[in-house]
Structure formats: C-alpha cells, structure tokens
Amino acid sequence: MRRRKMSFECTLFDLDVGDGPGGRLQRVVPRHVDTDPVTGKTLNVSFVRYAAGSQPGSKLRLPMEPINAGRCDGIRAGGWVLDLVWRLPVFASGERVPHCLLVDLRGKRIGDKVYAGEIVLPEGIRLRKVREDLAVCKIVGNRM
C-alpha cells in the first residue's frame, strides 16, 4: 500500500444551499468529481447530504493506509505490500469521517494476508456488504 494523502471524497463540507447570504448550511460529502481528461481541471463536483447519526449511515468508500511497517517481519525481510483492494465500502454515521482506514502490518510475514475483519474501524464507521474474510492486502516477496 502506498502512503496516501487526504481523500477529497471522504471530506465533509458545509455547503450553503439557501438563497442569498441568509441561506442555511447543509453538511455534504462529495459523491463524484468530473475532471477534464486533457487539462485535469475540475469540471463538476456532485455532493450528497450527510446526516450524522442517521442509520445505517452515508455510503462512502474509504482508502486504506498501512501502519507499523517497521514491525512487519515480511517487510524487514525484503517483502512489500501488494494492494488487493484500494478502498473499502463503509457506512459512516459519525460526526467526523476518517480520511483513511489504518491497516496494521505488525507481525505479518511474507505470504500473510490482512483481512477486512482485522481492520479496527473508528467510531461511527462500519463495513458495508464486505465479508470479514475479504483479503485487502498481502505481504509478498521472495521466501527464503
């Protein structure tokens, strides 16, 4: 897994949806971003309402970021992390949405997989239609 920066798609915004300066603010999250294929400029951003505390929650796809790579036996032995899943579909219902889910690599050896059920989910986040035995990444390299 590569180290990723903040995910725009998982950032909450307060959008003014009223008429004029006395409008009301609505909490939203980006749903889709259209960009020009040549220039890379943003053409359109679609938003959906985000209601904190609603059940089951807003549908998001959160990226993952590895932690404790220095404590991973497989990486210390010359292995690397192979991403099997880029983003996990989740329901978010908390006041804050994390920019990524942390994948703990501590103690993993070459050939070991990290499963969705091993990821510690922050408060207000739960997996959406994802089996807990879904492999999200694998430590690969030469076995000696």
Explain briefly what this protein structure is.
The chain has 144 residues and is an all-beta fold.
Q: Any key phrases for this structure?
A:
144 residues; RNA Polymerase Alpha Subunit, Chain A, domain 2; 3-stranded antiparallel beta sheet; 1 helix; 41% strand; elongated
Plain-language structure description:
By secondary structure, this protein is mainly beta. The chain contains one helix and ten strands, in the order ββββαββββββ. The model has no long low-confidence stretch (mean pLDDT 86).
Topology (elements, then pairings):
Blueprint: E1 13-16, E2 25-35, E3 42-49, E4 58-67, H1 73-76, E5 80-83, E6 87-92, E7 101-104, E8 113-115, E9 125-127, E10 135-140
Parallel strand pairs: 4-7
Antiparallel strand pairs: 1-2, 2-3, 4-6, 5-10, 6-9, 8-10
Number of strands: 10
CATH top level class name: Mainly Beta
Spatial shape = elongated
Low-confidence parts, pLDDT < 50 over ≥5 residues? none
Give the total of domains.
1
Named at the architecture level, the CATH assignment is: Beta Complex
How many distinct helices? 1
Question: What's the order of the H and E elements?
Answer: EEEEHEEEEEE
What is the H level of CATH, i.e. the homologous superfamily? Ribosomal protein L25, C-terminal domain
- Which whole number gives the mean pLDDT? 86
**Strand residue percentage:** 35-45%
Order of strands side by side in the largest beta sheet?
7-4-6-9
Helix residue percentage: under 10%
Which structural class do the helices and strands define? mainly beta
Distance between the termini: 23 Å
The major pleated sheet works out as: 4 strands, mixed
